[in-house]
Specification:
Layout: E1 2-10, E2 13-19, E3 23-27, H1 34-49, H2 53-57, H3 75-80, E4 85-93, E5 105-115, E6 120-131, E7 143-146, E8 150-153, E9 163-166, H4 185-195, E10 197-200, H5 227-236, H6 241-254, E11 258-265, E12 272-278, E13 281-284, H7 290-302, E14 310-314, H8 325-337, E15 341-346, H9 349-361, E16 366-374, E17 377-382, H10 391-399, H11 402-414
Parallel strand pairs: 3-15, 3-16, 10-14, 14-15
Antiparallel strand pairs: 1-2, 1-4, 4-5, 5-6, 7-8, 8-9, 11-12, 12-13, 16-17
Helix pairs in contact: 1-4, 5-6, 6-7, 7-8, 8-9
């Protein structure tokens, strides 16, 4: 589980430090920077697992690599004119598999730099240490910067001299697989934890309706494009049929009119067809509503037998009928209860209100974070649970952007809202 994240210099996240719980809801107006927080976590996982820093900054990261760095007041032209730009991300993680009772936590920090003039991306600092239950770090970190431009890399129970790497590097030390096995078990723990992070922006209008052949996939895909092959694998895979049946049951519980779900291979085209029986009539996934497809994808994510360690979803309620909002909230809570951390973004008042009720039921599990943007800089703060009497007003205020407020003030001044 990701217990804390501090992000500096990534897109609109100039300096954001936030503690996280099993189920986290980031809400605020459009363009507040909610998606940037999820993308920063994606970048962190890629820096730990990809071969080079340049690879980590590439697709599926959004935008050009240089656009990952916070813009100065002069905008992109000023950023491109600088000799170098920098971002850093720090995280405290509690791996799901506890192999070292004395040090259940891992703290990792990474700083990368890009030279806009050449496009070169490189590592300029890295720190990796085990942490005890009382938040005290071990005396000798696994990786730390020493002597200005060198990184010391230590094995478990190091008796001799530490190995040294000279900065800058074009890869992170922890991404180097030669640091693994019994001498470097904490490196394996870190990589294993973040390799289980999944980020989704479901696209039921396009990607989820595209014909797909059978293939071995471990989830529904970033945009839901692998929904059919994922369900097909669950249906026919060794030991995964119970997960497919769980997705069936979850879908029926969410949408009672859907009484059957199946996925079959078309022998003529070699592609997969998802079929749903709704109100006694069979429909293909090509024609069912966007809301039904989105709920089906969430059911598949919730039933995933491969148990990702973290799931991040952008606006999971989009296209879903208002009466189904509670269903979406229940599915997300179910994912968190199974041990997968959940981070979602939204700007839906109805969804926020539903998650507020979930927070009141489980205050140690569910957390709402208000996301705001002030002159291009994103802030994230825990949302204080309002009295039910003022709940709608407080949520509406939190979802209104500063630009909205200024526009409203201007309309009042001009008399446009007068009787």
């Amino acid at each position: 589980m990701l217990e804390r994240a501090r992000i500096r210099g990534f897109k609109s996240l100039g300096d954001v430090d936030v503690a996280l719980r099993p189920l986290n809801v980031l809400f605020g107006p459009n363009a507040a920077g909610k998606s940037n927080f999820i993308e920063a976590l994606l970048l962190l996982s890629r820096l730990i697992t990809e071969r080079t820093v340049g690879d980590a900054l590439g697709p599926p990261m959004r935008g050009y690599p240089v656009e990952a760095f916070s813009l100065p007041s002069g905008g992109l032209s000023e950023l491109l004119g600088r000799p170098a730009v920098k971002l850093d991300i720090e995280a405290v993680l509690r791996p799901r598999v506890e192999r070292e009772p004395k040090y259940p936590l891992l703290r990792y920090r990474v700083a990368v730099e890009m030279r806009p003039g050449s496009g070169e991306a490189r590592l300029v600092d890295e720190h990796f240490a085990r942490m005890g239950r009382n938040a005290v770090l071990e005396s000798k970190p696994r990786v730390e910067q020493v002597d200005g431009d060198r990184l010391a890399v230590r094995r478990l129970l190091e008796q001799g001299q530490a190995r040294h790497e000279t900065l800058p590097l074009h890869h992170t030390v922890v991404s180097n697989l030669q640091f693994s096995g019994e001498k470097y078990p904490d490196f394996d723990r870190l990589r294993e934890e973040v390799s289980g992070w999944r980020s989704y922006y479901l696209d039921p209008a396009g990607a989820m309706r595209t014909a797909q052949p059978p293939r071995e996939v471990g989830d529904v895909g970033v945009n839901g494009e692998h929904l059919a092959p994922f369900l097909f694998r669950l249906k026919g895979g060794e030991g995964t049929l119970p997960a497919f049946k769980a997705a069936q049951r979850a879908l029926h519980a969410a949408i009672p009119s859907v009484t059957a779900l199946d996925v079959d291979l078309d022998p003529q085209r070699g592609t997969l067809d998802i079929r749903l029986l709704q109100n006694g009539t069979e429909f293909s996934s090509r024609v069912v509503s966007e809301g039904t497809l989105r709920v089906l994808a969430l059911c598949a994510i919730a039933a995933n037998p491969f148990h990702p360690s973290l799931v991040a979803l952008e606006e999971p309620e989009n296209g879903v009928h208002p009466r189904r909002i509670e269903v979406i909230a229940d599915l997300l809570a179910g994912i968190a209860e199974r041990g997968t951390q959940v981070i979602v973004t939204t700007h839906s008042p109805a969804f926020v209100a539903e998650m507020l009720r979930a927070q009141r039921r489980s205050p140690n599990t569910v957390q709402l974070l208000r996301c705001a943007n002030d002159r291009g800089a994103t802030s994230l703060h825990s949302f204080e649970d309002p009295s039910p009497l003022f709940e709608n007003q407080k949520v509406a205020e939190a979802l209104r952007s500063q630009d909205d407020a200024q526009q409203m003030q201007g309309m009042l001044i001009r008399g446009w809202l007068d009787d």
